[in-house]
Amino acid sequence: MISTIMNWLVPKAHAAMTWNFLTVSETAGGTGTTGLTSIADKIITWASLIAGILAVLFLIYSGILYITAGGNPDSAKKGQQGIINAIIGIVIITIAYFLATTIAHFAGTATTP
Question: Range of 52's domain?
Answer without folding.
Answer: 2-106
